[in-house]
Write a structure and sequence with these properties.
Helix content: 25-40%
Radius of gyration: 14 Å
CATH topology: Nuclear Transport Factor 2, Chain: A
Largest sheet: 6 strands, mixed
Order of helices and strands: HEEHEEEEH
Low-confidence stretches: none
Strand content: 35-45%
CATH class: Alpha Beta
Length: 142
């Protein structure tokens, strides 16, 4: 595995600790103000730290039996791919989080890909039920 920049490694450690505890209180400290979230259900990304924090804070409550399995990093030490599995209700899914950080270790881009379609649909349904009224304000043209 390629080595991460020290700032990214520190933020990633914080991320893993938050996910393991189910408490994302420290998330604002590691998300860049202009961060974007790329959803597997939406064509356009959601823009701003508030959107990223809202979405990640909700999905951590939706996922059950969430586990990270592998971590891959980019040559520049600023990006990681985290492979995971989880359940949403009775549906099992696998996915990856592709996270890009800036030089200060702040998340600037968080993209999620999920399979199979039945798991993605269950996730989209549950996230939509919880966030549909809030997310349109964060749609980006980027």
């Amino acid at each position: 595995m390629n080595s991460l920049s020290p700032a990214v490694a520190a933020s990633l450690k914080t991320w893993h600790e938050m996910v393991a505890s189910g408490d994302l209180t420290a998330l604002p400290a590691i998300v860049h103000a202009d961060a974007v979230f790329r959803s597997p259900m939406a064509h356009q990304p959601y823009a701003s730290a508030q959107a990223v924090i809202l979405i990640l804070g909700t999905v951590i409550k939706v996922f059950e039996n969430f586990t990270y399995h592998r971590q891959l990093s980019s040559d520049d030490g600023l990006s990681v791919v985290l492979e995971f599995s989880a359940n949403v209700g009775d549906k099992q899914l696998k996915g990856i989080d592709m996270i890009r950080f800036d030089g200060d270790g702040k998340i600037v881009d968080f993209e999620v890909m999920v399979r199979p379609m039945s798991g993605l649909q269950a996730l989209g349904q549950e996230m939509g039920a919880r966030l549909a009224q809030y997310l349109p304000a964060y749609k980006s043209g980027r």
